[in-house]
Task: inverse folding
């Protein structure tokens, strides 16, 4: 590929922003259409990346480079490897679905809404493709602006509290990371991520750098105990906002751990692994129990996200091929499944304007297609074989067993608890007799809604039935990552960790 | 004295001649003893902006090398050029900002523009000062004009009070500065920066000299409104007419910070280890107070006052570092701060209801619906001040922290980023009021063309700074280099 396809995918949504900015605000239909076409087009272009991607090499591909701030050694540098490429696809897949899902739900300030989403898409894709530390930071942090606006303007009753909490929490984490990045620059003399990946940081500095990055990623992921912004943000955000939040933004943290913490600070990573395990186990078990007690559907799914992200961190820090691949797979499938679950909630919320679980019951009588869709994603979230959720969780547990069987055993209880709260949720909403009068006239999903879910259903099943098409893409990169970590650890005098 | 001796001061001479000519012109243009004369006001304002524009050209033409004049009391170098261009732009913007406001409030007198230009002349002399005496002259020339401008709305109690407060406290600060200068002279035997620099190269400064330096720092800290010498700022900002506040928050601040930088880096640069602790304290205290005190403000002008105190704190980090990277950070910060603040004040000047200005933050409610473009611009300025990428304010902070981390001042940098998070809270509050709340009593729709243009240009620069950051970065780097080479 000799044309700048990554820049194209990153900045194509901005073309849509310009187009929407110049169409009159009194015709919201125009804004919706433009946003859909542009984000759909972006998805198609991003498929070209996949088609042309060479899974046999761990090197960065489609690399583009341009001078930007030579005085400070900062340049515009983008590229993808097997780890980041799939996240780009996830982002470009979810954005048009978000636009479609907001078609009727958003009635005020449609123009601004669509602009926010397209800007958000640019920032998200940019974050995943950035190969310059500084560029990465800009995208990582810039995401906050559109997200703040989306929650604050189109959100629920407590939207102000939620948007402030989200913004300040994440900002707090990332500013510390910024300082760490500067320290890295002065140690390594470059902002080029590919060079930093192989740079050996001084043993004294490493734990501090690791902690600064950890502060940022742990909040973003989020890990217990800094997860409290997430349920608030999810509950108050409009449906599509929740979808993006759960589908993509949470992955920033996991991606960050994989891209930075693990390969750049391997010794510190090993040093802090017990911390990560502990926090993750608490997240998996505690937030699952919290989820069980929720009366608000979105809040329940939000807590389940925290639990699922616990698996991601466990897998990442097992330093085994299975664990890391499982973590990535878990992130991808969670990106699809939790996004779909928020959309599922959105479907009934649009009709009834309530997220209370007790508001519903027996919906299967009036909404069979909805019941089926919900079931599929509910089971995928639980980790039923044949769905994407299973592969990720299974690989993570496999990796965890090789690293630490206690961790694996405790994490496995999380799987059971996950099944409990999801099945309980499903039973209360879908099954039983439809006795509530206000639901007597509720309608099943229309064609637009089915069109939103169809791609997600396909992807979920595909990820469950034929995981190789995704695992093969990441395998070489993950292998290379772990080899690098192993050599770095061996050089630092660590015993070869049980020959993983 | 031959004529080439004056060449380095040519821009200043030009401004001085022109401003006196404008004063005369205004006097003869003005009709009878009317309280305001819009015609002469507009004419003189327009001409003043023209004069400032021409001065920018003159300043830039002299930019290529270091020049001294008046017995080495006056210096022109890359640093001075950079700072002067900023100050001139800020003053011109302030005059443009004032037009509508002063006319509406019945105080459109031509003296306003003349006083602003006089103050600007003082600032240019401050920036070029190479001697404690010329420093003091420039500073006083600036300050005296500013005192009058602060009380410009002379029938308004708040405005006169602000002017008086500013004058009394300003005089106190000048006294401290003079006392410090006299101590420096007593212990070093000279007031010239170059000679002082040579003296201090020899070794550690004497205790008396350090005391003198600290007094000078205290006087300058007052002028830049750094904690603990900031008390006047919120009151003066709130009391002074809004366009005057806009002017105060940029031009004098940039000039004073440039002067501060030159004084600390040039004569006292080699004694950095003696004064660094003081500046670190002032910087940290300003950042913390600026962030924390702003949270509780309801008046947007007071909020901007605390915000500017916070910004000064960040700028002073660059001074703690006391090297080229630090000065570069300061200069980048000042340029971006100028644009953000002018833009934000232009937005504040749009806040009027029934032709009266309103100043409460809650008055902004629903602005995103009644004035979508202005609200968006203010959103951009607020996010930029909070330091969120990719807006320009982020780059300003970045280069400051860059220098701090490079110099190993990690503690200061960590406090800096943490206060920036607290700061984000109150900037976001403005966004919240504009976007998340509905208006009960919407603001007037009409916004003057000048304001719209200023807001548009400022928002454009802040938004798209990241595309070509070198436009500011490279001149700033060159200016920093020039200061340290001199």
Result:
């Amino acid at each position: 590929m000799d044309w700048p396809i990554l820049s194209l995918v990153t900045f194509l949504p901005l073309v849509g922003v310009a187009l929407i900015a110049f169409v009159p605000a009194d015709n919201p239909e125009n804004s919706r259409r433009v946003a859909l076409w542009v984000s759909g087009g972006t998805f198609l272009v991003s498929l070209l990346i996949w088609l042309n991607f060479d899974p046999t090499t761990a090197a960065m591909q489609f690399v583009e480079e341009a001078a930007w701030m030579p005085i400070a050694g900062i340049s515009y540098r983008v590229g993808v490897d097997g780890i980041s490429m799939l996240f780009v696809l996830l982002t470009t897949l979810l954005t048009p679905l978000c636009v479609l899902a907001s078609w009727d739900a958003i009635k005020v300030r449609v123009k601004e809404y669509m602009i926010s989403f397209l800007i958000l898409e640019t920032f998200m894709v940019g974050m995943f493709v950035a190969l310059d530390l500084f560029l990465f930071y800009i995208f990582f942090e810039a995401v906050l602006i559109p997200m703040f606006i989306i929650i604050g303007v189109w959100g629920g009753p407590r939207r102000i509290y939620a948007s402030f909490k989200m913004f300040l929490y994440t900002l707090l984490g990332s500013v510390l990371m910024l300082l760490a990045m500067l320290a890295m620059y002065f140690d390594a003399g470059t902002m080029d991520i590919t060079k930093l990946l192989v740079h050996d940081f001084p043993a004294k500095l490493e734990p501090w750098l690791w902690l600064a990055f950890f502060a940022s990623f742990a909040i973003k992921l989020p890990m217990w105990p800094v997860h409290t912004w997430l349920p608030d943000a999810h509950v108050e955000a409009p449906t599509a906002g929740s979808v993006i939040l759960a589908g993509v933004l949470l992955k920033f943290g996991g991606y960050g751990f994989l891209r930075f913490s693990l390969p750049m600070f391997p010794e510190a990573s090993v040093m802090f692994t017990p911390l990560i395990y502990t926090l993750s186990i608490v997240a998996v078990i505690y937030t699952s129990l919290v989820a069980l007690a929720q009366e608000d559907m979105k809040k329940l799914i939000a807590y389940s996200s925290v639990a699922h992200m616990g698996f991601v961190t466990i897998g990442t820090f097992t330093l085994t091929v299975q664990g890391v691949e499982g973590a990535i797979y878990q992130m991808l499938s969670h990106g699809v499944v939790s996004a779909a679950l928020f959309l599922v909630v959105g479907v009934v919320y649009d009709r009834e304007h309530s997220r209370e679980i007790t508001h519903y019951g027996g919906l299967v009588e009036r909404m069979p297609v909805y019941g089926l869709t919900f079931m599929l994603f509910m089971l995928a979230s639980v980790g039923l074989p044949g769905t994407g959720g299973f592969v990720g969780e299974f690989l993570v547990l496999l990796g965890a067993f090789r690293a630490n069987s206690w961790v694996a055993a405790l994490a496995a209880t999380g799987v059971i608890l996950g099944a409990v709260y999801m099945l309980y949720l499903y039973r209360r909403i879908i099954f039983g007799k439809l006795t509530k009068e206000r639901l007597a006239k509720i309608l099943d999903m229309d064609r637009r809604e089915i069109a939103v879910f169809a791609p997600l259903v396909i992807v979920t099943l595909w990820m469950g039935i034929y995981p190789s098409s995704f695992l093969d893409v990441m395998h070489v990169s993950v292998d290379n990552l772990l080899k690098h970590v192993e050599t770095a650890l061996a050089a630092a005098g660590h015993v070869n960790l049980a020959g993983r | 004295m031959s004529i080439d001796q004056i060449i380095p001061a040519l821009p200043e001479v030009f401004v001085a001649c022109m401003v006196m000519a404008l004063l005369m012109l205004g006097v003869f243009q003005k009709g009878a003893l009317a309280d305001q004369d819009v015609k002469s006001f507009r004419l003189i304002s327009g001409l003043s902006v023209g004069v400032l524009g021409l001065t920018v050209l003159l300043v830039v033409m002299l930019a290529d090398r270091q020049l001294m004049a008046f017995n080495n009391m006056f210096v022109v170098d890359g640093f001075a050029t950079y700072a002067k261009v900023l100050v001139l732009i800020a003053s011109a913007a302030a005059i443009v900002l004032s037009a509508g406001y002063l006319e509406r409030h019945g105080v459109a007198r031509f003296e306003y523009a003349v006083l602003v230009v006089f103050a600007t002349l003082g600032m240019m002399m401050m920036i070029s000062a190479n001697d404690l005496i010329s420093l003091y002259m420039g500073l006083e020339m600036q300050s005296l004009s500013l005192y009058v401008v602060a009380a410009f709305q002379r029938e308004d109690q708040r405005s006169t009070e602000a002017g008086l407060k500013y004058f009394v406290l300003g005089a106190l600060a000048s006294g401290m500065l003079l006392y410090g200068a006299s101590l420096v002279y007593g212990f070093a035997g000279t007031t010239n920066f170059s000679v002082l620099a040579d003296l201090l190269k020899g070794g550690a400064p004497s205790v008396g000299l350090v005391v003198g330096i600290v007094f000078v720092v205290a006087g300058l800290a007052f002028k830049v409104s750094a904690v603990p010498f900031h008390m006047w700022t919120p009151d003066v900002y709130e009391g002074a007419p809004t366009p005057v506040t806009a002017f105060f928050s940029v031009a004098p601040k940039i000039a004073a910070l440039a002067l501060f930088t030159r004084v600390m880096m040039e004569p006292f640069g080699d004694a950095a280890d003696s004064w660094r602790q003081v500046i670190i304290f002032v910087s940290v205290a300003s950042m913390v107070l600026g962030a924390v005190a702003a949270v509780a403000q309801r008046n947007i002008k007071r909020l901007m006052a605390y915000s500017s105190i916070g910004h000064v704190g960040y700028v002073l980090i660059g001074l703690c570092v006391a090297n080229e990277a630090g000065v570069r950070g300061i200069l980048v910060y000042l340029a971006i701060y100028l644009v953000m603040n002018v833009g934000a004040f232009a937005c504040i000047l749009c806040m009027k209801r029934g032709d009266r200005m309103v100043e409460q933050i809650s008055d902004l409610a629903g602005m995103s619906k009644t004035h979508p473009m202005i609200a968006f611009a203010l959103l951009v300025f607020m996010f930029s001040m909070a330091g969120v990428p990719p807006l320009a304010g982020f780059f300003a902070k970045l280069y400051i922290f860059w220098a701090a981390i490079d110099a190993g001042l990690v503690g200061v940098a960590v406090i800096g980023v943490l206060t920036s998070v607290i700061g984000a809270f109150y900037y976001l509050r403005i966004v919240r009021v504009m976007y998340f709340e509905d208006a009960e009593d919407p603001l007037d729709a009409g916004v003057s063309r000048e304001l719209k243009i200023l807001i548009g240009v400022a928002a454009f620069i802040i938004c798209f700074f990241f595309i070509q950051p070198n436009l500011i970065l490279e001149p700033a780097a060159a200016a920093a280099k020039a200061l340290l080479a001199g």
Observations:
- Chain B has a mean pLDDT of 88.
- Residues 3-485 of chain B form one domain.
- Chain B touches chain A through 31 residues (CB under 8 Å).
- The CA atoms of residues 78 and 482 of chain B lie 5 Å apart.
